[in-house]
């Protein structure tokens, strides 16, 4: 018997295959459906059949064994063409079906009532049918009940498919997450190994330089060389620690920006001052093209760090004698600061990978200059905190790189003042300086430095000793740690401020607690300023000059 196939037959077969129901074992859930169908229509047999390209495949049978049939010999395939339901009260009286193979064959079908199984989007899959060996009729209520059962079948199958798809998607997501975690772990391990190397590398020259300074027979040039080594390598290690701290603070959202109009030229100037040594060391040619009337919405402290990290990156990955250009463009809404170099360049993958924490690229100069590779991660996250973007471009390895920082343009023409980094010429009149730190070496080192500068210094290692000393001695300056063992530095400062002789003093918190919240806590406790460790003692002395001048204090000569 020939059947007419729908023009959408290919799609129907694809949907049927995708449901994953064909060639699966019998299931109690579906057997309960066919049993209920036979009971409702009062027939001895009910079948749940699906029609694929060649056969009638039986998922569940009530009243007979599961049997499959060729599609062209299937009554259910005929029912499928109705797109709804097919009822034959008596096949012997139906000219089209009286000689049908399932009527004249072993099944001996006389009565047939089949409802099409249709998906939620109207695709016909097969039928739920009831058959009898005797003529009979079916009521509208019985046929509606059969339709309800058919809808239950399809709903269950589609639900199973959705659950399978969700499980497959979840498994893929978990696998991807595991791959990313494994990659992150590998990158972290590589990073930690590199961190150990970068921190250990300066220790050898530092140790050697210290030994040379201890040798009485060392010459003055040798001692000068040793002092230079100590300064250079301690500055280098300080920068690594600063980068690590800044990256961690940004990653946990502990840096709050104060956004205001900032002159872009002044921002770039401070960035250049931060990394002048890197550019000079590489003997790079540097050009800056900027309109001095441009203002960006930025944080006056953090925004120069973004550009400084881009400049350090350019200096690091450009061979000696290279070229670095800073070009600033502005439109109505945005400022674009472009840092270009003619260095080692980037691969297509590197343009994103270089911004990932604990991720190193394969650039050929990646290890030789040193550094942890945190600068670009920090730069991008700071750019995003500004509401801006930072992207990298390159035509390929050996063809240089371009980094584009986009910030919002400010419509105002007045700028918050960028703090100057150059030293002032004013000198401190000798002062009484109280140093408080439970780290004996740190406290003693500060004490020795300020004594060499001509100040009277007292050093204590506990808050209790500091309070006792302040009762009988009047300090002009207090330099105190916060994490003290017997009393935190905030409580100490509140107690010191209650002493009439200490109340006017210039008090600075020097601490490893470096978030904005820590700074606010220090100021609330009575400190005049908060400086993260490690503090540059030269800049610290100059900072005290500026701070005391700002407070308009009388500096007493001893």
TrEMBL record:
- Please list the residue ranges annotated as the Response regulatory domain: 432-548
Q: Which Gene3D superfamilies match?
A: 1.10.287.130, 3.30.450.40, 3.40.50.2300, Histidine kinase-like ATPase, C-terminal domain
- Cited CDD domains: HATPase, HisKA, REC_2_DhkD-like
- Return the PANTHER family for the record: HYBRID SIGNAL TRANSDUCTION HISTIDINE KINASE C, TWO-COMPONENT HISTIDINE KINASE
GO MF terms, alphabetically ordered: methyltransferase activity; phosphorelay sensor kinase activity
> Which chemical reaction does it catalyze?
ATP + protein L-histidine = ADP + protein N-phospho-L-histidine
Which EC number(s) does the record attach to this protein? 2.7.13.3
Which top class of enzyme applies to this chain? transferase
Per the record, the coiled-coil ranges are 160-194
Instruction: From the Swiss-Prot or TrEMBL record, give the protein name.
Output: histidine kinase
Q: Which residue ranges does the record assign to the Histidine kinase domain?
A: 194-411
Listed under GO biological process in this entry are: methylation
């Amino acid at each position: 018997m020939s059947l007419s196939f729908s023009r959408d037959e290919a799609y129907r077969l694809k949907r049927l295959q995708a449901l994953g129901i064909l060639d699966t074992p019998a299931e109690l859930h579906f057997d309960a459906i066919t049993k209920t169908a036979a009971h409702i229509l009062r027939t001895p047999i009910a079948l749940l059949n699906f029609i694929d390209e060649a056969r009638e495949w039986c998922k569940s049978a009530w009243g007979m064994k599961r049997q499959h049939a060729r599609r062209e010999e299937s009554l259910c395939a005929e029912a499928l063409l109705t797109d709804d339901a097919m009822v034959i009260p008596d096949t012997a009286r139906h000219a089209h079906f009286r000689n049908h193979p399932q009527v004249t064959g072993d099944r001996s079908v006389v009565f047939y009532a089949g409802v099409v199984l249709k998906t939620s989007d109207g695709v016909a899959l097969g039928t739920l049918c009831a058959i009898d060996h005797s003529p009979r009729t079916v009521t509208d209520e019985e046929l509606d009940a059969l339709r309800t059962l058919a809808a239950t079948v399809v709903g269950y199958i589609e639900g199973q498919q959705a659950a399978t798809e969700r499980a497959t998607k979840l498994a893929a997501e978990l696998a991807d997450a595991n791959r990313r975690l494994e990659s992150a772990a590998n990158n972290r391990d590589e990073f930690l190994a590199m961190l150990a190397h970068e921190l250990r590398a300066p220790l050898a020259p530092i140790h050697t330089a210290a030994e040379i300074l201890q040798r009485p027979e060392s010459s003055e040039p040798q001692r000068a060389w040793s002092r230079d080594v100590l300064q250079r390598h301690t500055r280098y290690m300080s920068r690594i620690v600063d980068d690590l701290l800044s990256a961690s603070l940004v990653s946990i959202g502990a840096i709050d920006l104060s956004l205001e109009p900032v002159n872009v030229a002044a921002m770039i100037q401070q960035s250049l001052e931060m990394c002048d040594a890197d550019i000079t060391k590489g003997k790079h040619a540097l050009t800056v093209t900027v309109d001095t009337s441009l203002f960006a919405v930025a944080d006056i402290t953090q925004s120069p760090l973004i550009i400084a990290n881009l400049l350090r990156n350019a200096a690091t990955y450009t061979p000696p004698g290279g070229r670095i250009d800073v070009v600033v463009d502005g439109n109505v809404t945005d400022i674009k600061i472009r840092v270009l170099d003619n260095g080692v360049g980037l691969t297509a993958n590197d343009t994103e990978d270089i911004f990932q924490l604990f991720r190193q690229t394969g650039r050929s100069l990646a290890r030789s200059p040193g550094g942890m590779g945190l600068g670009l991660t920090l730069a991008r996250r700071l750019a995003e905190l500004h509401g801006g973007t930072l992207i990298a471009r390159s035509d390929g390895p050996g063809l240089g790189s371009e980094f584009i920082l986009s910030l919002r343009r400010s419509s105002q023409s007045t700028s918050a003042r960028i703090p100057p980094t150059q030293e002032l010429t004013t000198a401190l009149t000798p002062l009484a300086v109280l140093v408080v730190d439970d780290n004996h070496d740190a406290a003693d080192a500060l004490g020795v430095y300020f004594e060499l500068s001509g100040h009277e210094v007292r050093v204590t290692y506990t808050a209790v000793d500091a309070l006792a000393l302040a009762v009988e001695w009047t300090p002009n300056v207090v330099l105190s740690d916060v994490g003290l063992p017997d009393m935190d530095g905030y409580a100490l400062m509140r107690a010191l401020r209650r002493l009439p002789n200490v109340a006017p003093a210039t008090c600075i918190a020097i601490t490893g607690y470096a978030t904005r919240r820590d700074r606010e806590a220090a100021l609330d406790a009575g400190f005049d300023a908060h400086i993260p460790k490690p503090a540059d003692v030269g800049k610290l002395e100059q900072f005290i000059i500026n701070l005391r001048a700002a407070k308009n204090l009388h500096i007493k000569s001893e």
